[in-house]
Amino acid sequence: MERSSKNYGKSKERKPTGKVGMMAVLLAVLVFLLVFIDLLLGSVRIPMSDVLKFIFTGSAGSEVSQNILFNFRLPRVLAAVLSGSALAVSGLLMQTIFRNPLADPSVLGISAGASLGVALVVMGSSALGLSFLGNQFSMVLAALAGSMLVLMLVMAVSVRVRNVIVILILGMMFGFAASAVTSILQYFSSEVSLKSFVIWTMGSLSSISGNQLWIFALLVFLGLVLAMLVARPLNVLGVGENYAQLLGYNVKAIRMVVFISTSLLAGSTTAFVGPVVFVGIAVPHVVRMAVKTSNHHVLLPTTLLAGAAFMLLIDTIAQLPGAGIVLPVNTVAALMGIPVVIYVIFKGSHFHAAS
Amino acid sequence: MQPAEVIGIKNLVVGYGEGAMSDFTYPPINANAYKGEMVALVGRNGAGKSTLLRTISRLQPMMNGEITVNGATLESIGRSEFSQLVSFIPAEPVRLPNTTVSDFITLARYPYHGWFDGLSHTDTTMVGKALKAVNLFDYRNRFLDRLSDGERQRVMVAFAIAQDTPVILMDEPTAFLDLPSKFEIVRLLREQTLLGKTVIISTHDLQTAFGFVDTIWLMLREGIRIGSPEDLVLTGAIDSLMDGTLVKFDMSSGQFKYTNSKTLSAYVSGSKRSLVKWTAHALERLGYHVSSIVLDTTSIQVEVMESEGKIQWCIENHKRKPTFDSLRNLCMFIKLEMNAG
Fold first, then answer.
1. Which of A304, B85, B252, B327 is the most exposed place for a label (fewest CB within 10 A)?
2. Which of B273, B235, B227 lies closest to B251, judged by CA?
């Protein structure tokens, strides 16, 4: 039996090392292409030559183009790249840690915590008559504080608890609690602040300004570095916590690093872009099916690139109506991403849920 | 001459420190395993076999007592040093999608690396060697989730080999396997003991335990009994395993058999020894005590004949003298007709 299946084993399931390299290059090219297209789009028409000049030399030629590109479109494009890669990577981390293909950053309650923070600022402040709190920067701070608070709770639990599924359930409970409080705030808030909160929940890539972008980039960078540091133990954690421990890793410490990384990535994205769902679940899934590996030294960079590409694509589509109308990020992400995921799942004949 | 002790266990109490099972403990364990020894942990469900293996491999804290590996207590061994001393394959099968066999085995080499150094030439060699040892080198680029149970278990053995530890522990390595795969796994593990490794497996499969291991740790409610399989038979310890059941170890045949409360006896006659032997086997299975002479309590007399290549069974002392063309039909008749009422 071994003999007869020898050829099959050799020809059909060849090691996809070269393929992965190709895919990474393709993804990088795709990201670059989408950056270009995304810069091209917007309410004001800017000639292609100006955009190309802007990309390669840093100045667009005409002052109007330069102003629009540098102050409006570049921040939007960078926000898309940062949030896309942050969400995708944090989704990958969660799926590996919980060994569950349906896990994403929201399972730890991090997004719900951020939402609660924003809800307190947007709706709570108007109720208390503290209107000065309602500005953009305080929303960001509140979102960060909310996600950090939930993370702290999750970490306090994870030091005590061995079983990762217990952490998953508790994280979801924290998330539900935060959502419940948010709902109460929504119920009692004024129409105006309710609307501004609802709009925030739909997500937006264009509300981020120059200085905030630096903070966003720094937080995402830190999160990504932490994720890369634990790439090796993540490979073993994917097999099971038993195996990680047996191979000499401190499981609780690694889990902690992963949680901090996730909260930096998902928390900052929720703060600056809004509670964007779907990217965190879908992108790592699609990447895993495409590269067919569970090695995080490969998965992390490809997921990062794919996340950036996906978010750029979403933003490109969100701009399509033209005339200055931009669709909310969340709706586009869902409507666009769902068919892609369904297609990929059906096409991958041996789709396995890691249990 | 005393062989070198690799695993030493003194007054070990295993169990669960917290939760619903906190007040439950197993009797203290004293045992040791030598270099190159193959040990089978045998005991009933809930006897603490997995718990003991998990405790030796430090997945679970011990409640009391001491375990030493090469003379050093478990507590004194560093995390990464320990992963180069003891490998443990838990009973739950690994489910890891999108992973090739060789990528998986490569994980077993992680204890030999720092955070940043990549795979060395030694690692690649070790992975290849481990796969060749279990005859799966040609499968190295197959995906894990495309393997049969038997192949996957061989991969797990390769994992332990690649981790290159003097002690290999496996929980239920032969569960769910067909007979050939079972023997293959045990043979592969035996091979490792010939290379000087100490292998401890837990098993419910007494045939495997009796046929192929050096030593059995028999975990009974009253404590652990240790010896070669034959030692345990001669001291009668093996019978204690079956306490509370209707099964007894039959020392003459080396097999486990039902003991019956009803004393039904049977007599089998026939021309060929093998025919008589297997007919008696079938009747014993039905709860009859087969004797070589007709006793006055004999409730059934079977004659087995062979003519022109056809075998026939006949119940001589039944009023209709029924005949059967297979033991299956004979057995079903006896079961339903003779035992009725």
1. B252
2. B235
Rounded alpha-carbon distances, angstroms, from residue A62 to A36, A49, A157, A277, A289: 18, 11, 56, 38, 45
pLDDT confidence band for B261 (50 / 70 / 90): low
Task: Specify the range with the lowest mean pLDDT, choosing from A60-64, A75-79, A237-241, B97-101.
Answer: A60-64
Q: Give residue-wise pLDDT tens across range A278-304.
A: 888 889 988 988 888 889 999 999 999
Which fold is adopted by the domain A2-354?
Answer: ABC transporter involved in vitamin B12 uptake, BtuC (1.10.3470)
pTM: 0.82
pLDDT digits (tens, 9 = 90+) for B52-64: 999 999 998 888 8
Would the CB atoms of B104 and A232 count as touching at under 8 Å?
no
Return the residue matching tokens 């592969």.
Answer: B188
pLDDT for A126: 63
Quote the CA–CA distance of B24 and B33 in Å, as a whole number: 26
In this complex, do B110 and A236 lie within 8 Å of one another by their Cβ atoms? yes
**ipTM exceeding the 0.90 mark:** no
CA distances from B62 to A241, B53, B56 (A): 19, 11, 9
More confident residue, B335 or B253: B335
Q: Does B58 contact chain A (CB < 8 Å)?
A: yes
| Chain B residue whose CA is closest to A7 | B138
Q: How far apart are CA A256 and CA A267, in angstroms?
A: 15
CA distance B115 to A257: 14
> What is the average pLDDT across B279-285?
87
Answer whether B174 touches A (CB < 8 Å).
Answer: no
Contact B103 A6 (CB under 8 A): no
Cβ within 8 Å of residue A321, ≥6 positions away: A327
B109 and chain A in contact, CB less than 8 A: no
Mean pLDDT, rounded, for B220-242? 85
Q: Tell me how close the Cα of A302 comes to any Cα of chain B, in angstroms.
A: 15
Q: Which residue of A has its CA nearest to B77?
A: A248
> Given an 8 Å threshold on Cβ–Cβ distance, is A354 in contact with B87?
no
Domain residue ranges of chain A, discontinuous segments joined by +: 2-354
Any idea how long chain A is? 355
